[in-house]
Amino acid sequence: MAATPFTIGIIQDHATDDNAANLARAERLVRDAARKGAQIVCLKELFNATYFCKAQQCDRFDLAEPIPGPATERMQAIARELQVVIVVPIFERQTAGIYRNSAAVVDADGSLLGVYRKMHIPDDPLFYEKYYFTPGDGHFDNHGEQKGEANGFKVWKTRYATIGVLICWDQWYPEAARITTLLGAQVLFYPTAIGWHPAEKDEWGTAQVEAWRTIQRAHAIANGVYVASPNRIGHEDEPGTNGITFFGHSFIADPFGRLVAEAGEKEEIVIARCDPALIESVRRNWPFLRDRRVDAYGPILSRYIGS
User: Of 129, 168, 268, 274, which one is the catalytic site residue?
Assistant: First the structure.
């Protein structure tokens, strides 16, 4: 585990139907983040396209690209130039008929360290992700040893820190945060595309934002790690519906769950300094990992326990 403090940056921005412009905007914002001192930069979920899962349309599979591919290769060049780590979440075409909601992790020398593929896939009105995405596959045996390289929960030892990446819907699952922490993550990055159904905003809008932040702050506390969640912003239309208004409010929380940096609902770069010494201190004083009853947790592998 890296012991030197490091600085992270998360990018909150919108997207349009012009994917080239989305990529150019992301490059500009990554450069701005690096100028502000960020050593590790994370983009939003599916960063270079609108959130196309608002409807089930076969031609939208054309938005996918391989890893490595045009978007990741461009970010690799930027990472190499700026000497920054970049988390690059894209719609991945792994092969014909297998498409993933993925995040490529690029080290500060431009090398592609690996890919995380979203494990939990939602299916809700205007969030029809099960139509598009094959979920990541778990590769652990019964003794908790990781098997295989392609999928599952993972961490990467980057130049500056050991990081884990989980994606959007993953952020509601404490199991994902715990496993990624146990693999050695110092920061959990959660690239996100979450927003309001406009008709629900007045009644539920504030509660939805607070629930989203609270669950992730709880992951930071329970695991003694930093959590960083870049969300998208802006209203995106979908014919025949009211569309989605992505609410932003990207944030970084420390191992106490404190919000050390946060955004509103406009384009913004959120920057925070992370100190591994705080991880050490929090875990010494709140030794949740020490006191886990790993001998008693077998039932967690059941879908439901009851009569």
Answer: 168
Tokens of residue 283, six digits: 């875990």
Domain membership of residue 164 (yes or no) is yes
Task: At 247, list the tokens.
Answer: 């609410």
Known catalytic membership, residue 168: yes
> Hunting for tokens 């875990």 — which residue is that?
283
Structural domain including 221 reads 6-301
Q: Is residue 1 part of a domain?
A: no
Annotated active-site residue in 42, 44, 45, 236: 45
Tokens encoding 141: 């045996």
Closest CA relative to residue 100, chosen from 89, 108, 110: 89
How far, in Å, are 53, 205, 227, 239 from residue 7 at the CA level?
33, 31, 13, 41
**Beta-ladder partners of 6:** 274
List of the chain residues with pLDDT < 50: 141-142, 144, 148-150
Cβ contact 272:52 at 8 Å: no
Residue 306 lies in a domain: no
* Predicted TM-score of the model (pTM): 0.95
Please indicate whether residue 154 is annotated as part of the active site: no
Structure token digits, residue 252: 């970084």
The secondary element (H helix, E strand) that includes residue 181 is helix 174-182
Helix (H) or strand (E) holding 24: helix 19-35
Query: What is the average pLDDT score of the chain?
Result: 95
At residue 139, the pLDDT reads 62
Marked catalytic residue, from 44, 53, 92, 118: 118
Judge whether 53 counts as a catalytic residue: no
Q: How many domains is the chain partitioned into structurally?
A: 1
- Phi and psi based region of residue 152 (left: phi greater than 0; alpha: psi -120 to 50; beta: remaining): left
